Amino acid sequence: MKSLFDEITLGKIKVKNRLVRSATFEYGGDDSGRYRQNMYDVYEGLAKGGVGLIITGMVGIDENSRVSPYMVKTYDDSFSDGLKKLTEIVHDYGCKIVVQIAHNGAKVPKTDTGLPPMAPSKLADKNYREMSSEDIQSLIGSFTTAAIRCKEAGADGVQIHAAHGYLISQFLSPIFNHRADEYGGAIEKRAKILFDIYNAIRAAVGNDYPIWIKLNSSDLEESGLTFEECQWVCDQLTDMGIDAIEVSGGISITPRSASAQPVRNRQEEGHFYQEANRIAENSKVDIISVGGHRTPELLEEKLNQSNVKAISLCRPFICEPDLVNRWQSGNLEKAKCVSCNKCFAPGELSCKVFPR
Ligand SMILES: Cc1cc2nc3c(=O)[nH]c(=O)nc-3n(C[C@H](O)[C@H](O)[C@H](O)COP(=O)(O)O)c2cc1C
């Protein structure tokens, strides 16, 4: 019998339970993109609250990559010291930390340099530019440098953000990727940039350092990435040596493709779980399911009916950073979060329904 509180090895990392904080953009940077002081308190609260592992909110890998001026810059010299401090804080509570490295591509409102944002293709009426082969090489280099910095700062691993309609997800999706070169066309080509990035990071950090990925099980839009294509990408990454795959969904261009879906009843809990379950069925790699998980009894039921190894949650931890301790102490009521998405309000990350 699997329990939520089993100690496990997840994507090469020893974790004290099966509960993960999924990446949550915390507006963690000050207006120079350096860790804000209160981030240390946020992470301490989560670690103290019992969660086994925290995936950080996405951090930007270069000056074209950030969706908000408050996104932490991995390319600022202060990054290593900030991450080192964050890592030490969570490790003191026996919690682990994986850094989500990201490029927001076409969703970047303004680059640091003032040049237009970059995307796989230039679509009509959009102000971003199509990436050249030099841009692609530079992107691979920036992801790699960011991963090296995370490793050097002592983080337990990195997660490549390839979901939710940001740059790598844009490459994977026929909605954004209309390229005619080796990076566009069939899924084998649309996924090439991801494979190039993964291979470059692996060569730089070595075989023992955990590299995870977050992927869309599908884009939830007509003519977007399909489940079968996602499954193919997972199979390839498995053969290449990825350590864990977090299965999400939604390219986030309309409400129906939102990555944070409504959770109004038990049926809507774990809305990408069936896909995670299918991927996990024959997978040699650890699979994490994210999306709408709320009730501990259902989580254990799901874990015991599948090969999914861990469950990650985002919005519930904004509302209750100590949720895992609550469950572990025997109060097994479902998470209080009502999935209203008011926590997406720009600025400070907080629950507006149950303020702390
Ligand atoms: C405020 C907020 C910020 C988020 N930031 C990120 C992020 O930085 N990276 C990411 O991959 N997903 C991000 N997500 C999506 C979550 O990680 C998760 O996939 C989604 O919310 C579904 O899980 P949940 O139902 O447990 O909230 C964010 C979601 C919310 C609500």
Explained architecture:
With 356 residues, the protein is an alpha/beta fold. It has a single domain, classed as TIM Barrel, CATH 3.20.20.70. Helix content is 32%, strand content 14%. Strands 3-4-6-9-10-11-12-13 form an eight-stranded parallel barrel, surrounded by six helices. The chain has a two-stranded antiparallel ribbon with strand order 1-2. Strands 7-8 form a two-stranded parallel ribbon. The structure holds flavin mononucleotide. Flavin mononucleotide is lined by residues 22-25, 57-58, 100, 161, 163-164, 214, 248, 259-260, 290-293, 313-316, 343-344.
Q: What topology does this entry show?
A:
Layout: E1 8-10, E2 13-15, E3 19-21, H1 37-48, E4 53-55, E5 59-60, H2 79-91, E6 96-102, E7 118-119, E8 129-130, H3 133-153, E9 157-162, H4 167-172, H5 187-190, H6 192-205, E10 211-216, H7 227-240, E11 244-248, H8 273-281, E12 286-290, H9 296-304, E13 310-313, H10 315-319, H11 323-328
Parallel strand pairs: 3-4, 3-13, 4-6, 5-6, 6-9, 7-8, 9-10, 10-11, 11-12, 12-13
Antiparallel strand pairs: 1-2
Helix pairs in contact: 1-2, 2-3, 3-6
This protein binds flavin mononucleotide.
Strand order of the largest sheet: 3-4-6-9-10-11-12-13
Output the number of helix runs: 11
Could you list the spans in which at least 5 consecutive residues all have pLDDT below 50?
none
CATH superfamily: Aldolase class I
Tell me about the largest β-sheet. 8 strands, parallel, barrel
Q: What's the CATH class label?
A: Alpha Beta
What's the number of extended β-strand segments? 13
Q: How many structurally independent domains?
A: 1
Beta-strand proportion:
5-15%
Task: Name the bound molecules.
Answer: flavin mononucleotide
CA-CA gap between termini = 35 Å
Report the C-alpha radius of gyration, rounded.
19 Å
CATH architecture name: Alpha-Beta Barrel
Structural class: alpha/beta
Helix content percent band: 25-40%
- At the fold tier of CATH, the topology name is TIM Barrel
Order of helices and strands: EEEHEEHEEEHEHHHEHEHEHEHH
Q: What gross morphology would you assign?
A: globular
Average pLDDT works out at 96
